[in-house]
Amino acid sequence: MILGNLACTVTGACIVIPCEIFDAEQVMKCVEQEKCSSLYGVPTMFIAELDHVNFVKYNFSSLRTGIMAGSICSTELIKSVQSKMNIKELAVCYGMTETSPVSTQTLPNDSLENRVTTVGKVQDHVEIKIINIHSNETVQRGQIGEFCLQGYHVMIGYWNNKVETEKIIDNEGWLHSGDLAIMNDDGYIKIVGRINDMIVRGGENIYPKEIEELLCKHPAISDVYVIGIPDRKYGEQVMAWVKLKSNITEVNEEALHDFCKNQISHYKIPQYWKFVQAFPVTVTGKIRKVEMREIAIQELNLKLKKP
């Protein structure tokens, strides 16, 4: 939203605000009526539009570009937006409110592989590093670590809150994002999850995005999120929250378990499944995994809690 409004303002482009509170059909109506060329949103918004019962009634031929950001974007979702909504030049961005906001971005001339699996390259005004979460040493390309940023775009600090500021910005001015990332040999960044979302099952590190990416390929699934929940034997177990497509009713846990077999390691296959119509989200449409975990603990009557 911030980048979209600023970009339109500095270039004199028209800004269309379809509704005060997000409504998928109202957005689609505005795209058709106003012949919008660009569409911005978080992944849950694009999913709501694609899954809407009236999606096929609307004309998206005017769309050309847009930005998807705000949380991890699945490969399957990006491909669907490009093909079904005509957003061929869709950009995926990585940013934080604390970094003004965007720090990396894919470009239209990037390869399809890089546009659907990464958040692009770092922007010219930004300095980054990826560090080992235990030693704080910079890792080699291809290795997972915490994504850190530095530059004039980084906030000075949280207003009147020195304690919280010092938790996220170190003595050298590096902002620690809390996100786990990998840089490939060509400099493209892939976000693999949040440090706090990483599941440790029996000593094995499990990254939810890998499982989410796989399950999103299932033809019956509209959206899915994976969390870790307490387990007395393994420390944590894997749980998947699944939203099925509107016309699907006959997919069960066993079918999804079988789908995962031979595609990911056995210990990564969800032990628990929860089918839902919607996910807990913030006012800006971001998924609240903390709330999902709290609900799961209560429903499954689990007493152990992740530190």
Automatic annotation (TrEMBL):
Pfam families listed in its UniProt record = AMP-binding, AMP-binding_C
**What InterPro entries would the database entry show?**
AMP-bd_C, AMP-bd_C_sf, AMP-dep_synth/lig_dom
Domain AMP-binding enzyme C-terminal: where? Answer: 210-286
Gene Ontology molecular-function annotations: medium-chain fatty acid-CoA ligase activity
Asked whether the UniProt record includes Ligase among its keywords, one would answer: yes
Describe the task this protein carries out.
Acyl-CoA synthases catalyze the initial reaction in fatty acid metabolism, by forming a thioester with CoA. Has some preference toward medium-chain substrates. Plays a role in adipocyte differentiation.
UniProt-listed PANTHER family? ACYL-COA SYNTHETASE, MEDIUM-CHAIN ACYL-COA LIGASE ACSF2, MITOCHONDRIAL
Q: Into which family does the record put it?
A: Belongs to the ATP-dependent AMP-binding enzyme family.
Record's protein name: Medium-chain acyl-CoA ligase ACSF2, mitochondrial
This chain's source organism reads Didymodactylos carnosus
